[in-house]
Design a protein that fits this description.
Helix content is 25%, strand content 25%. The longest helix has 15 residues, at 300-314. β26 (373-381) and β27 form a beta hairpin. It is α/β, with parallel strands linked by helices.
Protein backbone atom coordinates (compact mmCIF):
# COMPACT_ATOMS: atom_id res chain seq x y z
CA UNK A 1 0.00 0.00 0.00
CA UNK A 2 1.26 3.48 -0.89
CA UNK A 3 0.69 5.81 2.06
CA UNK A 4 1.54 9.47 1.73
CA UNK A 5 1.97 11.59 4.85
CA UNK A 6 1.99 15.38 4.55
CA UNK A 7 3.82 16.87 7.53
CA UNK A 8 6.59 15.46 9.68
CA UNK A 9 6.71 16.92 13.17
CA UNK A 10 4.65 15.05 15.79
CA UNK A 11 1.55 13.39 14.34
CA UNK A 12 3.04 12.74 10.91
CA UNK A 13 6.15 10.95 12.11
CA UNK A 14 4.15 9.01 14.70
CA UNK A 15 1.75 7.72 12.01
CA UNK A 16 4.58 6.78 9.68
CA UNK A 17 6.75 5.08 12.29
CA UNK A 18 3.90 3.05 13.78
CA UNK A 19 2.61 2.03 10.33
CA UNK A 20 6.00 0.79 9.22
CA UNK A 21 6.70 -0.91 12.53
CA UNK A 22 3.52 -2.98 12.29
CA UNK A 23 3.73 -3.64 8.55
CA UNK A 24 7.11 -3.11 6.92
CA UNK A 25 5.66 -3.86 3.48
CA UNK A 26 3.91 -0.49 3.31
CA UNK A 27 5.48 2.10 1.01
CA UNK A 28 5.37 5.21 3.19
CA UNK A 29 6.56 8.64 2.18
CA UNK A 30 6.62 11.84 4.27
CA UNK A 31 6.53 15.21 2.53
CA UNK A 32 7.35 18.18 4.74
CA UNK A 33 8.12 21.77 3.86
CA UNK A 34 10.49 22.22 6.82
CA UNK A 35 14.17 21.34 7.01
CA UNK A 36 13.69 19.38 10.21
CA UNK A 37 11.30 16.66 11.27
CA UNK A 38 10.26 15.40 14.68
CA UNK A 39 11.55 18.41 16.61
CA UNK A 40 10.60 19.37 20.18
CA UNK A 41 8.43 22.42 19.61
CA UNK A 42 7.45 22.57 23.28
CA UNK A 43 11.12 22.75 24.23
CA UNK A 44 11.90 25.90 22.25
CA UNK A 45 11.45 28.39 25.15
CA UNK A 46 13.88 26.36 27.23
CA UNK A 47 16.52 26.47 24.52
CA UNK A 48 16.14 30.27 24.48
CA UNK A 49 16.71 30.26 28.23
CA UNK A 50 19.75 27.96 28.05
CA UNK A 51 17.96 25.29 30.08
CA UNK A 52 18.39 23.12 26.99
CA UNK A 53 21.95 23.93 26.00
CA UNK A 54 22.42 22.34 22.58
CA UNK A 55 20.36 22.96 19.46
CA UNK A 56 20.67 19.31 18.43
CA UNK A 57 18.83 18.30 21.61
CA UNK A 58 15.70 19.87 20.13
CA UNK A 59 15.79 17.50 17.18
CA UNK A 60 14.28 14.17 18.16
CA UNK A 61 15.17 12.65 14.79
CA UNK A 62 16.92 13.93 11.69
CA UNK A 63 15.38 12.88 8.36
CA UNK A 64 18.31 10.55 7.71
CA UNK A 65 18.19 8.96 11.14
CA UNK A 66 14.41 8.55 11.00
CA UNK A 67 14.55 6.91 7.57
CA UNK A 68 17.25 4.45 8.63
CA UNK A 69 15.43 3.63 11.85
CA UNK A 70 11.94 3.17 10.40
CA UNK A 71 12.30 2.54 6.66
CA UNK A 72 10.09 5.56 5.88
CA UNK A 73 11.16 7.81 3.01
CA UNK A 74 11.39 11.45 4.09
CA UNK A 75 11.45 14.37 1.65
CA UNK A 76 12.17 17.69 3.36
CA UNK A 77 11.65 21.21 2.00
CA UNK A 78 8.87 19.90 -0.22
CA UNK A 79 5.65 21.91 0.06
CA UNK A 80 2.34 20.37 -1.00
CA UNK A 81 0.26 22.92 -2.86
CA UNK A 82 -2.81 20.95 -3.89
CA UNK A 83 -4.69 17.73 -3.15
CA UNK A 84 -6.63 15.97 -5.93
CA UNK A 85 -8.89 13.37 -4.24
CA UNK A 86 -10.40 12.03 -7.49
CA UNK A 87 -6.99 11.28 -8.99
CA UNK A 88 -5.54 10.35 -5.61
CA UNK A 89 -2.57 12.63 -6.15
CA UNK A 90 -0.99 15.65 -4.52
CA UNK A 91 0.93 18.42 -6.23
CA UNK A 92 4.09 19.74 -4.59
CA UNK A 93 7.03 22.05 -5.16
CA UNK A 94 10.64 21.48 -4.15
CA UNK A 95 11.52 24.64 -2.19
CA UNK A 96 15.22 24.22 -2.92
CA UNK A 97 14.95 24.01 -6.72
CA UNK A 98 11.45 25.28 -7.52
CA UNK A 99 10.68 22.09 -9.43
CA UNK A 100 7.11 20.76 -9.32
CA UNK A 101 6.18 17.15 -8.66
CA UNK A 102 3.08 14.98 -8.44
CA UNK A 103 2.81 12.16 -5.90
CA UNK A 104 0.17 9.45 -5.91
CA UNK A 105 -1.27 7.61 -2.92
CA UNK A 106 -3.60 4.85 -1.82
CA UNK A 107 -4.08 6.48 1.56
CA UNK A 108 -3.34 10.12 2.38
CA UNK A 109 -2.61 11.41 5.89
CA UNK A 110 -2.70 15.17 6.44
CA UNK A 111 -0.54 16.14 9.42
CA UNK A 112 0.57 19.62 8.45
CA UNK A 113 0.24 21.13 11.92
CA UNK A 114 -0.35 24.82 12.47
CA UNK A 115 1.54 28.02 11.78
CA UNK A 116 1.90 30.98 14.16
CA UNK A 117 -0.56 33.79 13.54
CA UNK A 118 1.16 36.77 11.97
CA UNK A 119 -0.96 39.87 12.63
CA UNK A 120 -1.20 42.46 9.85
CA UNK A 121 0.38 45.33 11.77
CA UNK A 122 2.97 47.90 10.83
CA UNK A 123 6.54 46.83 11.53
CA UNK A 124 5.87 43.10 11.68
CA UNK A 125 8.87 42.43 9.43
CA UNK A 126 11.37 44.58 11.33
CA UNK A 127 14.58 43.07 12.61
CA UNK A 128 14.00 41.95 16.17
CA UNK A 129 10.54 40.47 15.63
CA UNK A 130 10.49 36.79 16.48
CA UNK A 131 8.04 33.91 16.38
CA UNK A 132 8.43 30.69 18.35
CA UNK A 133 7.41 27.70 16.24
CA UNK A 134 10.55 26.08 14.82
CA UNK A 135 14.10 25.41 16.07
CA UNK A 136 15.32 28.19 13.77
CA UNK A 137 13.10 30.65 15.67
CA UNK A 138 14.62 29.66 19.01
CA UNK A 139 18.18 29.66 17.68
CA UNK A 140 17.90 33.17 16.24
CA UNK A 141 16.34 34.62 19.41
CA UNK A 142 18.90 33.04 21.70
CA UNK A 143 21.76 34.26 19.50
CA UNK A 144 20.41 37.81 19.71
CA UNK A 145 20.10 37.58 23.50
CA UNK A 146 23.63 36.20 23.89
CA UNK A 147 25.04 38.93 21.65
CA UNK A 148 23.80 41.54 24.12
CA UNK A 149 21.77 43.45 21.56
CA UNK A 150 18.50 42.80 23.42
CA UNK A 151 17.73 44.33 26.80
CA UNK A 152 13.96 44.90 26.70
CA UNK A 153 11.44 42.46 25.24
CA UNK A 154 7.70 42.65 24.67
CA UNK A 155 6.02 39.26 24.45
CA UNK A 156 2.71 39.40 22.61
CA UNK A 157 0.41 36.67 23.89
CA UNK A 158 -0.21 35.34 27.38
CA UNK A 159 -0.67 31.67 26.54
CA UNK A 160 1.68 28.87 27.54
CA UNK A 161 4.43 29.53 24.99
CA UNK A 162 4.32 33.30 25.55
CA UNK A 163 4.63 32.94 29.33
CA UNK A 164 7.35 30.30 29.03
CA UNK A 165 9.33 32.60 26.75
CA UNK A 166 8.82 35.46 29.21
CA UNK A 167 10.12 33.28 32.06
CA UNK A 168 13.21 32.21 30.15
CA UNK A 169 14.05 35.70 28.92
CA UNK A 170 13.60 37.13 32.43
CA UNK A 171 15.97 34.44 33.72
CA UNK A 172 18.55 35.75 31.24
CA UNK A 173 18.40 39.17 32.90
CA UNK A 174 16.17 40.90 30.35
CA UNK A 175 13.35 43.31 31.13
CA UNK A 176 10.20 41.53 30.00
CA UNK A 177 6.58 42.52 29.73
CA UNK A 178 3.66 40.58 28.28
CA UNK A 179 0.66 42.06 26.49
CA UNK A 180 -2.56 40.25 25.65
CA UNK A 181 -5.75 41.62 24.16
CA UNK A 182 -7.90 39.18 26.17
CA UNK A 183 -9.30 39.88 29.63
CA UNK A 184 -6.85 37.41 31.16
CA UNK A 185 -3.71 35.42 30.50
CA UNK A 186 -3.81 31.60 30.26
CA UNK A 187 -6.79 31.07 27.94
CA UNK A 188 -8.86 28.12 29.09
CA UNK A 189 -8.10 28.73 32.75
CA UNK A 190 -10.59 30.03 35.28
CA UNK A 191 -10.34 33.84 35.65
CA UNK A 192 -9.51 33.68 39.35
CA UNK A 193 -6.69 31.21 38.67
CA UNK A 194 -5.36 33.38 35.85
CA UNK A 195 -5.45 36.46 38.09
CA UNK A 196 -3.53 34.63 40.79
CA UNK A 197 -0.85 33.61 38.27
CA UNK A 198 -0.68 37.17 36.94
CA UNK A 199 -0.04 38.54 40.44
CA UNK A 200 2.62 35.88 41.00
CA UNK A 201 4.39 36.80 37.76
CA UNK A 202 4.34 40.47 38.75
CA UNK A 203 6.09 39.50 41.99
CA UNK A 204 8.75 37.81 39.84
CA UNK A 205 9.27 40.98 37.80
CA UNK A 206 7.23 40.08 34.70
CA UNK A 207 4.69 42.82 34.06
CA UNK A 208 1.52 41.81 32.24
CA UNK A 209 -0.94 44.08 30.47
CA UNK A 210 -4.25 42.42 29.63
CA UNK A 211 -6.96 44.02 27.48
CA UNK A 212 -4.04 45.44 25.51
CA UNK A 213 -3.80 44.88 21.78
CA UNK A 214 -0.76 45.15 19.52
CA UNK A 215 -1.23 48.05 17.09
CA UNK A 216 2.22 48.64 15.57
CA UNK A 217 5.93 47.98 15.94
CA UNK A 218 8.16 50.98 15.32
CA UNK A 219 11.85 51.34 14.60
CA UNK A 220 14.45 52.42 12.07
CA UNK A 221 15.20 49.05 10.51
CA UNK A 222 14.88 47.25 13.84
CA UNK A 223 12.52 47.18 16.79
CA UNK A 224 12.65 50.26 19.03
CA UNK A 225 9.18 50.49 20.55
CA UNK A 226 5.81 48.78 20.54
CA UNK A 227 2.57 50.67 20.16
CA UNK A 228 -0.37 49.07 21.95
CA UNK A 229 -3.99 50.05 22.40
CA UNK A 230 -3.13 51.49 25.83
CA UNK A 231 0.48 52.67 25.78
CA UNK A 232 3.78 52.73 23.92
CA UNK A 233 6.50 50.44 25.29
CA UNK A 234 10.24 50.67 24.63
CA UNK A 235 11.64 47.41 23.32
CA UNK A 236 14.62 45.90 21.51
CA UNK A 237 12.68 42.80 20.48
CA UNK A 238 9.16 41.48 20.13
CA UNK A 239 8.21 37.82 20.48
CA UNK A 240 4.87 37.03 18.89
CA UNK A 241 2.96 34.16 20.46
CA UNK A 242 -0.68 35.01 19.85
CA UNK A 243 -1.82 31.59 18.79
CA UNK A 244 -1.69 29.28 15.81
CA UNK A 245 -3.74 28.70 12.69
CA UNK A 246 -4.12 25.24 11.12
CA UNK A 247 -1.85 24.94 8.10
CA UNK A 248 -4.56 23.89 5.66
CA UNK A 249 -4.59 26.60 3.01
CA UNK A 250 -3.37 24.14 0.39
CA UNK A 251 -6.61 22.18 0.78
CA UNK A 252 -8.68 24.87 -0.94
CA UNK A 253 -10.75 23.29 -3.68
CA UNK A 254 -10.09 19.75 -2.46
CA UNK A 255 -13.60 19.20 -1.15
CA UNK A 256 -12.36 18.41 2.35
CA UNK A 257 -14.63 19.74 5.07
CA UNK A 258 -12.97 22.34 7.30
CA UNK A 259 -13.99 24.02 10.55
CA UNK A 260 -14.35 27.82 10.82
CA UNK A 261 -10.74 28.12 12.03
CA UNK A 262 -9.48 26.06 9.09
CA UNK A 263 -8.92 22.76 10.89
CA UNK A 264 -9.89 19.58 9.09
CA UNK A 265 -13.04 17.95 10.43
CA UNK A 266 -12.63 14.25 11.22
CA UNK A 267 -14.59 11.55 13.02
CA UNK A 268 -13.43 9.42 15.95
CA UNK A 269 -11.29 7.35 13.56
CA UNK A 270 -9.64 10.48 12.07
CA UNK A 271 -11.42 9.93 8.76
CA UNK A 272 -12.30 13.03 6.76
CA UNK A 273 -15.40 13.41 4.61
CA UNK A 274 -13.43 12.01 1.64
CA UNK A 275 -12.58 8.34 1.51
CA UNK A 276 -8.92 7.37 2.04
CA UNK A 277 -7.98 10.81 3.35
CA UNK A 278 -7.24 11.25 7.07
CA UNK A 279 -6.09 14.13 9.27
CA UNK A 280 -4.31 14.21 12.65
CA UNK A 281 -2.46 16.69 14.83
CA UNK A 282 -2.71 20.47 15.03
CA UNK A 283 -4.33 20.72 11.59
CA UNK A 284 -7.41 18.74 12.67
CA UNK A 285 -10.30 18.94 15.09
CA UNK A 286 -10.90 16.19 17.64
CA UNK A 287 -13.76 15.38 19.98
CA UNK A 288 -14.10 16.62 23.51
CA UNK A 289 -14.14 13.56 25.77
CA UNK A 290 -16.85 14.94 28.05
CA UNK A 291 -19.24 16.74 25.69
CA UNK A 292 -18.59 14.77 22.49
CA UNK A 293 -18.44 18.03 20.52
CA UNK A 294 -15.66 18.94 18.10
CA UNK A 295 -12.83 20.89 19.65
CA UNK A 296 -9.40 22.20 18.73
CA UNK A 297 -6.63 20.72 20.90
CA UNK A 298 -3.23 21.64 19.39
CA UNK A 299 -1.04 19.72 21.83
CA UNK A 300 1.86 17.37 21.17
CA UNK A 301 0.29 14.77 23.45
CA UNK A 302 -2.96 14.67 21.47
CA UNK A 303 -1.04 14.64 18.17
CA UNK A 304 0.97 11.58 19.17
CA UNK A 305 -2.06 9.72 20.51
CA UNK A 306 -3.99 10.45 17.33
CA UNK A 307 -1.10 9.38 15.11
CA UNK A 308 -0.74 6.08 16.90
CA UNK A 309 -4.45 5.26 16.70
CA UNK A 310 -4.68 6.18 13.03
CA UNK A 311 -1.66 4.03 12.16
CA UNK A 312 -3.27 1.01 13.81
CA UNK A 313 -6.51 1.60 11.93
CA UNK A 314 -4.66 1.87 8.62
CA UNK A 315 -3.12 -1.47 9.50
CA UNK A 316 -6.53 -3.07 9.81
CA UNK A 317 -7.69 -2.38 13.35
CA UNK A 318 -10.92 -0.61 14.25
CA UNK A 319 -10.04 1.80 17.04
CA UNK A 320 -11.83 4.99 18.05
CA UNK A 321 -10.44 8.03 19.83
CA UNK A 322 -12.70 8.86 22.75
CA UNK A 323 -11.60 12.46 22.77
CA UNK A 324 -9.39 15.08 24.40
CA UNK A 325 -9.83 16.90 27.70
CA UNK A 326 -7.67 19.90 26.90
CA UNK A 327 -5.13 18.74 29.47
CA UNK A 328 -2.13 21.01 29.81
CA UNK A 329 0.57 22.03 32.27
CA UNK A 330 3.00 24.94 32.35
CA UNK A 331 6.12 25.86 34.33
CA UNK A 332 6.33 29.53 35.34
CA UNK A 333 8.68 31.53 37.59
CA UNK A 334 8.10 30.18 41.10
CA UNK A 335 4.79 28.60 40.10
CA UNK A 336 3.36 25.77 38.03
CA UNK A 337 -0.15 25.54 36.64
CA UNK A 338 -2.20 22.78 35.08
CA UNK A 339 -5.72 21.98 33.98
CA UNK A 340 -7.95 19.34 32.48
CA UNK A 341 -11.59 18.96 31.55
CA UNK A 342 -14.29 21.61 31.54
CA UNK A 343 -14.15 25.01 33.19
CA UNK A 344 -17.02 26.15 35.36
CA UNK A 345 -18.55 28.18 32.53
CA UNK A 346 -18.02 25.49 29.90
CA UNK A 347 -19.66 22.89 32.14
CA UNK A 348 -22.63 25.17 32.68
CA UNK A 349 -22.94 25.84 28.95
CA UNK A 350 -22.90 22.08 28.35
CA UNK A 351 -25.98 21.75 30.55
CA UNK A 352 -24.47 20.31 33.71
CA UNK A 353 -25.70 21.07 37.24
CA UNK A 354 -22.37 22.65 38.15
CA UNK A 355 -20.82 22.68 41.59
CA UNK A 356 -17.25 23.75 42.31
CA UNK A 357 -14.90 23.97 45.23
CA UNK A 358 -11.54 25.69 45.66
CA UNK A 359 -9.05 24.43 48.23
CA UNK A 360 -5.66 25.55 49.44
CA UNK A 361 -3.83 22.45 50.63
CA UNK A 362 -0.23 21.48 51.40
CA UNK A 363 1.50 19.71 48.50
CA UNK A 364 3.47 17.54 50.96
CA UNK A 365 3.73 17.16 54.72
CA UNK A 366 3.75 20.69 56.14
CA UNK A 367 6.83 19.96 58.25
CA UNK A 368 8.86 18.67 55.30
CA UNK A 369 11.33 21.17 53.77
CA UNK A 370 9.99 22.75 50.60
CA UNK A 371 6.34 22.23 51.43
CA UNK A 372 4.12 24.75 49.66
CA UNK A 373 0.42 25.18 48.94
CA UNK A 374 -1.51 23.70 46.05
CA UNK A 375 -4.54 25.74 45.04
CA UNK A 376 -7.04 23.38 43.44
CA UNK A 377 -10.35 24.18 41.79
CA UNK A 378 -12.53 21.14 41.14
CA UNK A 379 -15.64 21.15 38.96
CA UNK A 380 -18.32 18.46 39.10
CA UNK A 381 -21.93 17.73 38.21
CA UNK A 382 -24.02 17.98 41.36
CA UNK A 383 -26.69 15.59 40.13
CA UNK A 384 -24.50 12.70 38.94
CA UNK A 385 -21.53 13.60 41.21
CA UNK A 386 -19.18 13.05 38.27
CA UNK A 387 -15.91 14.94 38.02
CA UNK A 388 -15.89 17.35 35.07
CA UNK A 389 -12.71 19.37 35.40
CA UNK A 390 -9.82 20.51 37.57
CA UNK A 391 -7.31 23.36 37.67
CA UNK A 392 -4.33 23.66 39.98
CA UNK A 393 -1.48 26.06 40.68
CA UNK A 394 1.44 25.69 43.06
CA UNK A 395 5.19 25.37 43.36
CA UNK A 396 5.07 21.59 43.48
CA UNK A 397 4.24 18.81 41.04
CA UNK A 398 0.88 20.03 39.81
CA UNK A 399 1.00 17.52 36.96
CA UNK A 400 0.24 14.60 39.29
CA UNK A 401 -2.94 16.34 40.49
CA UNK A 402 -3.97 17.00 36.90
CA UNK A 403 -3.25 13.44 35.82
CA UNK A 404 -5.31 12.03 38.68
CA UNK A 405 -8.25 14.09 37.45
CA UNK A 406 -7.63 12.95 33.86
CA UNK A 407 -7.82 9.33 34.96
CA UNK A 408 -10.98 9.92 36.99
CA UNK A 409 -12.75 11.78 34.19
CA UNK A 410 -11.57 9.30 31.57
CA UNK A 411 -13.04 6.43 33.59
CA UNK A 412 -16.30 8.34 34.13
CA UNK A 413 -15.78 8.23 37.89
CA UNK A 414 -18.04 9.73 40.50
CA UNK A 415 -16.57 11.73 43.36
CA UNK A 416 -17.51 8.93 45.76
CA UNK A 417 -15.41 6.48 43.69
CA UNK A 418 -12.21 8.51 44.08
CA UNK A 419 -12.70 9.79 47.62
CA UNK A 420 -11.15 7.09 49.77
CA UNK A 421 -8.48 5.50 47.61
CA UNK A 422 -5.09 5.06 49.27
CA UNK A 423 -3.05 7.44 47.17
CA UNK A 424 0.74 7.41 47.50
CA UNK A 425 1.94 9.03 50.70
CA UNK A 426 5.27 9.83 52.31
CA UNK A 427 6.26 13.22 53.74
CA UNK A 428 8.52 14.20 50.80
CA UNK A 429 5.74 13.49 48.28
CA UNK A 430 2.30 14.16 49.69
CA UNK A 431 0.09 14.48 52.74
CA UNK A 432 -1.51 11.61 54.64
CA UNK A 433 -4.84 12.50 53.06
CA UNK A 434 -3.77 13.34 49.52
CA UNK A 435 -4.36 16.95 48.31
CA UNK A 436 -6.56 15.54 45.55
CA UNK A 437 -8.63 13.57 48.07
CA UNK A 438 -8.86 16.60 50.39
CA UNK A 439 -10.43 18.53 47.55
CA UNK A 440 -12.80 15.69 46.70
CA UNK A 441 -13.84 15.58 50.36
CA UNK A 442 -14.45 19.32 50.39
CA UNK A 443 -16.57 19.13 47.26
CA UNK A 444 -18.63 16.27 48.64
CA UNK A 445 -19.05 18.20 51.89
CA UNK A 446 -20.36 21.11 49.87
CA UNK A 447 -22.76 18.92 47.88
CA UNK A 448 -23.99 17.24 51.07
CA UNK A 449 -24.51 20.55 52.87
CA UNK A 450 -21.75 20.04 55.44
CA UNK A 451 -19.80 22.97 53.98
CA UNK A 452 -21.65 26.20 53.25
CA UNK A 453 -19.25 28.43 51.39
CA UNK A 454 -18.52 31.13 48.91
CA UNK A 455 -16.03 30.55 46.09
CA UNK A 456 -13.17 32.96 45.35
CA UNK A 457 -14.90 33.77 42.08
CA UNK A 458 -18.14 34.61 43.87
CA UNK A 459 -16.21 36.78 46.33
CA UNK A 460 -14.57 38.62 43.41
CA UNK A 461 -18.05 39.17 41.97
CA UNK A 462 -19.20 40.85 45.20
CA UNK A 463 -21.41 38.06 46.54
CA UNK A 464 -19.86 38.45 49.99
CA UNK A 465 -21.26 41.96 50.42
CA UNK A 466 -23.38 42.35 53.51
CA UNK A 467 -21.43 39.72 55.41
CA UNK A 468 -19.28 40.57 58.43
CA UNK A 469 -15.77 39.20 57.99
CA UNK A 470 -14.56 37.03 60.85
CA UNK A 471 -10.80 36.34 60.95
CA UNK A 472 -10.41 32.64 61.77
CA UNK A 473 -6.69 32.41 60.99
CA UNK A 474 -4.12 30.78 63.25
CA UNK A 475 -3.05 34.31 64.27
CA UNK A 476 -4.87 37.61 63.59
CA UNK A 477 -4.30 38.43 59.92
CA UNK A 478 -7.11 40.67 58.65
CA UNK A 479 -6.93 44.27 59.75
CA UNK A 480 -10.19 45.56 61.17
CA UNK A 481 -11.90 42.16 61.32
CA UNK A 482 -12.94 40.51 64.61
CA UNK A 483 -10.60 37.62 65.40
CA UNK A 484 -11.98 34.26 66.56
CA UNK A 485 -9.60 31.52 67.67
CA UNK A 486 -11.35 28.17 67.24
CA UNK A 487 -9.13 26.68 69.94
CA UNK A 488 -10.77 29.07 72.42
CA UNK A 489 -14.30 28.92 71.01
CA UNK A 490 -16.43 26.62 73.11
CA UNK A 491 -19.65 28.59 73.20
CA UNK A 492 -21.46 31.62 71.78
CA UNK A 493 -19.45 34.55 70.44
CA UNK A 494 -19.60 37.75 72.49
CA UNK A 495 -21.27 40.64 70.69
CA UNK A 496 -22.24 38.68 67.57
CA UNK A 497 -25.87 37.84 66.96
CA UNK A 498 -26.69 34.29 65.88
CA UNK A 499 -28.62 35.58 62.84
CA UNK A 500 -25.84 37.91 61.68
CA UNK A 501 -24.30 37.21 58.30
CA UNK A 502 -20.72 36.05 58.91
CA UNK A 503 -18.00 35.40 56.35
CA UNK A 504 -15.42 33.15 57.95
CA UNK A 505 -11.92 33.60 56.58
CA UNK A 506 -8.60 31.97 57.45
CA UNK A 507 -5.33 31.40 55.59
CA UNK A 508 -6.35 28.27 53.68
CA UNK A 509 -10.03 27.69 54.45
CA UNK A 510 -9.66 24.73 56.80
CA UNK A 511 -9.89 26.58 60.12
CA UNK A 512 -12.81 28.63 58.80
CA UNK A 513 -14.62 25.38 57.94
CA UNK A 514 -13.92 23.95 61.39
CA UNK A 515 -15.20 27.16 62.98
CA UNK A 516 -18.34 27.05 60.86
CA UNK A 517 -19.12 23.51 62.00
CA UNK A 518 -18.73 24.56 65.63
CA UNK A 519 -20.76 27.75 65.30
CA UNK A 520 -23.60 25.87 63.66
CA UNK A 521 -23.74 23.68 66.76
CA UNK A 522 -24.03 26.87 68.81
CA UNK A 523 -26.97 28.10 66.68
CA UNK A 524 -25.27 30.45 64.20
CA UNK A 525 -27.32 29.98 61.04
CA UNK A 526 -25.88 32.49 58.58
CA UNK A 527 -22.20 31.67 58.10
CA UNK A 528 -20.19 31.29 54.91
CA UNK A 529 -16.65 29.96 54.52
CA UNK A 530 -14.38 31.64 51.98
CA UNK A 531 -12.98 28.71 49.99
CA UNK A 532 -9.22 28.72 49.52
CA UNK A 533 -8.69 31.33 52.22
CA UNK A 534 -6.71 34.53 52.13
CA UNK A 535 -3.65 32.87 50.56
CA UNK A 536 -5.61 32.73 47.31
CA UNK A 537 -7.99 35.69 47.66
CA UNK A 538 -7.13 39.24 48.67
CA UNK A 539 -9.47 40.30 51.45
CA UNK A 540 -10.83 43.81 51.66
CA UNK A 541 -9.92 45.33 55.02
CA UNK A 542 -12.80 46.34 57.25
CA UNK A 543 -10.80 49.11 58.86
Amino acid sequence: MDILVIGGVAAGTKVAAKLKRENYNHNIKILTKGKDISYAGCGLPYYVGNVIEREEDLIVNTPEKFSKLTGVEVLTEVEVTKVNPEEKTVEAVDLKTGEKYTYSYDKLVIATGADPIKPPVEGIDLEGVYFMRTPEDAVSLRAAVESGEIKRVVVVGGGFIGLEIAENLKAQGLIVCVIDMADQILPGFEPEIANYVEDSLADEGIVIFTKTGLEAIHGDGKVEKVQTSNRTIKADAVVLSIGVRPNTGFLAGSGLELSPNGAVLVNEKFETNIEDIYAVGDCAFVRNLITGKSTYAPMGSVANIAGRILAQNLNGKNLSYKGALGTSVVKLPGLNAGKTGLTEDAAREAGYDVVTVTTTVDDKAHYYPGSAPFIIKMIADKTSRKLLGLQVVGKGSVDKIVDMAVMAIGLDAKLDDIQNLDYAYAPPFSTAIHPFAVTVNALLNKINGDLISITPREYMEGKGEGYKIIDASLVPSIEGAPYVDIAKTHGELDGIDKEEKLLLVCDKGKRAYMLQKRLRDFGYTNTLVLEGGRIFTKIESEA
